[in-house]
Design brief:
Blueprint: E1 23-24, E2 28-30, E3 33-40, E4 61-65, E5 78-80, E6 99-108, E7 117-121, E8 124-125, E9 127-132, E10 135-140, E11 147-150, E12 158-167, E13 180-182, E14 185-186, E15 190-194, E16 204-210, E17 215-221, E18 227-230, E19 235-239, E20 244-246, E21 252-253, E22 256-257, E23 260-265, E24 270-275, E25 280-283, E26 286-289, E27 292-293, E28 296-300, H1 314-326, E29 331-333, H2 341-350, E30 353-357, H3 381-395, E31 401-405, H4 414-426, E32 432-433, E33 446-449, H5 453-461, E34 467-472, H6 483-492, E35 496-501, E36 509-511, E37 514-516, H7 544-552, E38 556-561, E39 564-569, E40 580-586, E41 593-598, E42 607-611, E43 623-629, E44 635-642, E45 657-659, E46 665-667, E47 670-672, E48 679-682, E49 685-693, H8 700-703, H9 710-717, E50 722-732, E51 735-744, E52 750-760, E53 763-773, E54 782-789, E55 795-802, E56 815-822, E57 839-848, E58 852-866, H10 870-875, E59 888-896, E60 919-927
Parallel strand pairs: 28-29, 28-35, 29-30, 30-31, 31-32, 33-34, 34-35
Antiparallel strand pairs: 1-24, 2-15, 3-4, 3-6, 5-13, 6-12, 7-11, 7-15, 8-14, 9-10, 9-12, 16-17, 17-20, 18-19, 18-23, 21-22, 23-24, 25-26, 26-27, 36-37, 38-39, 39-42, 40-41, 40-43, 43-44, 45-46, 46-47, 47-48, 48-49, 49-54, 50-51, 51-52, 52-53, 53-60, 54-59, 55-56, 55-57, 57-58, 58-59, 58-60
Helix pairs in contact: 1-2, 3-4, 5-6
The structure holds 1-methylethyl 1-thio-beta-D-galactopyranoside.
């Protein structure tokens, strides 16, 4: 048998011309369900003649279609980012080519007798050879694109047998090197549809909006003689191929995704579409929709499910898109392939700007210096054009799709340019995107990934086509940091029209109680946890980055100044008539007052002011919080201002320190041991500390990166293994002084500390001074102290920022208030263990449970509390490796480094670093 199709430069065979997805009254038979399946490690080991109807498949297993077969125990998933997991020798593929033979027996009703019909595959990864009733129909290519075959005359009423041989590797694999798991299979739906003669094989709706007049123009390209009706627009059976001008329509946008039902009909078939009116145009260097500059608050969305692989049930998609909407995400780039067709229906309905991206990535050619890259090789031109036309034809009727993207990371070349010009000739209503065309020779927008803040601002100051970040803010592990600073750039420079966070979801595969990443399936070549870089965990639970992003993308911004509250409307089209403001006054002990106010009438892009509410006088620290919400209670923005006096330093009276006969030192309720001078008892509470602490379990952004591995420098400097030496401990009439030197072995670098202890009515207070010694060349993960506490102190309450974790460059979502949690709940379960759970700007912290400890800051501190040390967390590479120790390890930080985005992009902005320099800070401890 000839397998030449595998190496035919990714050209499908025997497929029908592409067309739009359309629901019509022509009968459809869904073929999803339980199929028969057999996996062979190579084609030569696959059964001969399995396509024959009479073939005996009783020894095979059952497999649900759609499915990614490695997720069901057949072979294994494998992860690489850009490295091809096979030798680069296009168009050839390895002999070891997992081949999944699929068979389905199905019954066709008598009413189908003699009907013209097509068999449709919505997605087969990577290549499928198809037989119906023993007749070969052809070969699919382009995993994430539909393929249809004419089955008229082959399909028959009664029993039919469909046989599909799917190969993991084909020439198309060279074009599908996206950063994700390699997951072969028939992973989208399979269906049969009758195609009546004279029916609606294809339609192309054109629904423009004139923002000057408020009118719409509607035309439907359909077979000759077709008519359409749109009752809500007063149109009844009007000629399809003429433009119908409508005096007033409700325009479509993510802020108001207004859809009109349009029924298109020929004598033989009636189809139904949901149409949105909008006009995309580049005007004076700005990307506009319906006459306004738009701004992408977007995410890159891969199709992923932790149990099913690339099969994402439609109800899961709906839930995830609703989750995006609740976090003020208004745009999706379908990285890096067209999504399942149902996804775009939901984008139309719920409202997202979509950049629909073609199924194309040849990133692995980076390792040959792009030698042999298909993008500039004429032998691959047909495949490039085939993929582009199949995407455009399939998705052309979606109002949400406002740009076509040629693909991702495929360098540049004539085949990409040809895709662009074909798309323009077919659909001139949507601009073209492709990040690889830096010179904008064949694209309409200047697109970049991971450009630094400074470079984005420079681009904003220069002139040229609209600028977008198709990827930014790499959400790997704990991060990204610096989102708010990017947003500020989008708001400062009109040319900078927003971007798409990389990426929506962690692609972790469920494995017992945790999620697997690259290498966990024994892959010889893999990229580890680089696939765990989303805003939501693999099970779609939001990570703290989601709260941050919601605050940064918030459509309403609250500010304070000159005794007034400023309310800024950051919508593109909406006013604020749906917004209610709620205010709360809070102090460390109570919430003495709250109330409501209407938002001022503010047009999009404008801001208005209202006066401060009347709230009672408060003596100490107090905060006024104003929250803007919609009628469903969804928070649209929040702001805060301090309205009371700052907290005072500790009280006056001071007890003397003294030395006990056994060498221990006593100060009021406190006992210090004589070896290191650490506090070991405070009243009834056993403690151990404080010790200077500068380490954190490196985040992915600390560990990885194009900009020099920070973690390597930290480890070389020995920050994770400081030795502690006691240089002196003295008791005097006013307290104790402990002198220590913290230094890594093998260097002459050190941090000297002087801790001055006092005991008074307020508790036991420490004034810490840190003075560096030597020529340090690194910055620090953090500066602070750590203490070990009894494991029973697991109830946590604090007055400070919360409720979620916060770092200096990721703190837009956290507001000052009084919060309660537990030590266990303070942890964020990042798939790859790393620093997490830090609470910021804390004034008062209490840990309780069979006694308690109160910590107050002078003035504030950050804290983490967990049942293991930072060293434990550092050692673990899987969640199950994080030990649970007997004690709670509490870090009190004066400062902690920001997060940045260095795992793939710029690092922490200089102002969020922790330099080695002198520091002074203080805190007060009391036993409860
Ligand atoms: C960029 C890719 O486009 C994306 O698919 C993903 O791999 C991301 O990086 C990292 O997670 S490419 C990179 C070289 C900038």
């Amino acid at each position: 048998m000839d397998n030449g199709y595998l190496t035919d430069f990714a050209r499908p065979a025997g497929t029908l011309p592409p067309r739009a997805v359309l629901s019509t009254d022509a009968p459809v038979l869904r073929l999803d369900g339980s199929w028969r399946f057999r996996l062979s490690p190579a084609i030569a080991q696959a059964p001969e003649g399995f396509w024959r109807p009479e073939f005996d498949d009783s020894a095979w297993t059952n497999l649900d279609v759609p499915s990614s077969w490695p997720m069901h125990g057949h072979g294994k998933p494998a992860y690489t980012n850009r490295v091809y997991p096979f030798p680069i020798d296009p168009p050839y593929v390895p002999t070891e080519n997992p081949t999944g033979d699929h068979r389905l027996r199905f019954t066709v009703p008598e009413s189908w007798a003699g009907a013209r019909a097509v068999l449709r595959f919505d997605g087969v990864d990577s290549c499928g050879r198809v037989w119906l009733n023993g007749t070969e129909l052809g070969v699919t290519q382009g995993s994430r694109l539909p393929a249809e075959f004419d089955v008229s005359g082959v399909l028959r009423p009664g029993a039919n047998v469909l046989a599909v041989r799917v190969h993991q590797w084909s020439a198309g694999s060279y074009l599908e090197d996206q950063d994700m798991w390699w997951l072969p299979g028939i992973f989208r739906s399979v269906s049969l549809a009758q195609r009546p003669a004279g029916g609606l094989d294809d339609v192309f709706v054109h629904a423009d909006y004139d923002h000057v007049t408020g009118g719409g123009a509607l035309r439907v390209d359909a077979p000759p003689g077709a008519v359409f009706s749109a009752p809500a627009l007063g149109l009844h059976e009007v000629a399809a191929d003429q433009t119908h001008h409508l005096a007033a329509v409700r325009p479509w946008s993510p802020e108001d995704p207004a859809l009109y039902t349009v029924e298109v009909a020929t004598a033989a078939e009636t189809g139904s579409l949901r149409v949105g009116f909008r006009t995309v145009a580049i005007v004076d260097g700005l990307l506009t929709v319906n006459g306004r500059r738009i701004e992408f608050h977007g995410v890159n969305r891969h199709e992923f499910h932790p149990d099913l692989g690339r099969v994402v049930p439609q109800e899961v998609v709906r839930a995830e898109l609703e989750l995006m909407k609740r976090h003020h995400i208004n745009a999706i780039r379908t990285s890096h392939y067209p999504p399942a067709p149902g996804v775009l229906d939901l984008c139309d309905e719920l409202g997202f700007w979509v950049i629909d991206e073609c199924d194309l990535e040849t990133h692995g050619f980076l390792s040959t210096g792009w030698r042999g890259n298909p993008s500039d090789d004429p032998r691959w031109r047909d495949a490039y054009l085939d993929r582009m036309s199949r995407m455009v034809e399939r998705d052309k009727n979606h109002p949400s799709v406002i740009m076509w993207s040629l693909g991702n990371e495929s360098h540049t070349g004539a085949n990409l340019a040809a895709m662009a010009s074909w798309a323009r000739s077919r659909d001139d209503s949507r601009p073209i995107h492709y990040e690889g065309d830096r010179a904008c020779e064949y694209v309409d927008v200047y697109s970049r990934m991971y450009a630094s803040h400074a470079e984005c601002a420079a681009i904003g100051r220069a002139s040229g086509p609209p600028f977008i970040l198709c990827e930014y803010a790499h959400a790997m592990g704990n991060g990204p940091g610096g989102l708010a600073e990017y947003q500020q750039i989008f708001e400062t420079y009109p040319r900078c029209q927003g971007g798409f966070i990389w990426e929506w979801i962690d692609h972790g595969i469920r494995s017992g109680d945790q999620f697997a990443y690259g290498g966990d399936f024994g892959e010889p070549v893999h990229d580890g946890n680089f696939v765990i870089d989303g805003l939501v965990f693999p099970d779609r639970t939001p990570s703290p980055a989601m709260a941050e992003l919601a605050a940064v993308y918030a459509p309403v911004r609250i500010g304070f100044g000159a005794g007034r509250i400023t309310v800024a409307n950051r919508y593109t089209y909406r006013d604020l008539s749906h917004v209610t403001l709620t205010w709360t006054l809070s102090t460390p002990d109570a919430e003495p007052a709250s109330g409501r106010a209407a938002a001022p009438p503010v047009a999009p892009g404008e801001s208005g002011q209202i006066s401060l509410p009347d709230f009672p006088d408060v003596s100490g620290e107090a905060w006024l919080t104003v929250v803007a919400a919609d009628p469903d209670g969804l928070v649209l923005g929040a702001g805060q201002a301090a309205v009371g006096a700052a907290p005072r330093a500790a009280g006056a009276s001071r007890l003397p320190g003294r030395r006990r006969a056994d060498g221990h030192l006593l100060l009021g309720p406190a006992v210090f041991e004589p070896v290191y001078g650490r506090l070991v008892r405070l009243g009834d509470l056993a403690l151990d500390g404080p010790r200077l602490h500068v380490w954190r379990a490196p985040t992915d952004n600390d560990r990885l990166g194009f900009h020099g591995e920070l973690m390597r420098d930290w480890r070389e400097a020995g920050l994770h293994r400081l030795q502690e030496r006691l240089d002196g401990i003295e008791a005097d009439d006013e307290g104790l002084t402990v002198l220590s030197r913290y230094a890594p072995a093998g260097t002459d670098l050190a941090l000297r500390t002087t801790v001055r202890w006092h005991a008074g009515e307020d508790g036991l207070s420490a004034e810490v001074r840190v003075v560096p010694e030597g020529a340090w060349t690194v910055t620090l993960p953090r500066i602070g102290v750590r203490l070990a506490l009894p494991g029973s102190l697991s109830e946590v309450e604090w007055f400070g920022r919360g409720p979620g974790e916060a770092y200096p460059d990721s703190r837009a979502a956290v507001l000052v208030g009084r919060y309660r949690s537990t030590v266990d709940e303070l942890q964020t379960p990042y798939v790859y263990p790393q620093e997490n759970g830090h609470r910021a700007d804390v004034r008062l912290l209490e840990l309780r449970g069979g006694g308690g400890l109160r910590v107050t800051g002078a003035p504030t501190f950050g804290f983490t509390a967990r049942r293991c040390t930072d060293e434990d967390l550092d050692m673990a590479v899987r969640r199950t490796e994080i030990p649970e120790r007997d004690r709670i390890h509490l870090n009190l930080d004066l400062a902690q480094r920001g997060l940045g985005s260095a795992s793939c992009g710029p690092g922490v902005l200089p102002r969020y670093e922790v330099p080695v320099r002198e520091y002074s800070f203080g805190f007060t401890l009391s036993a409860l």
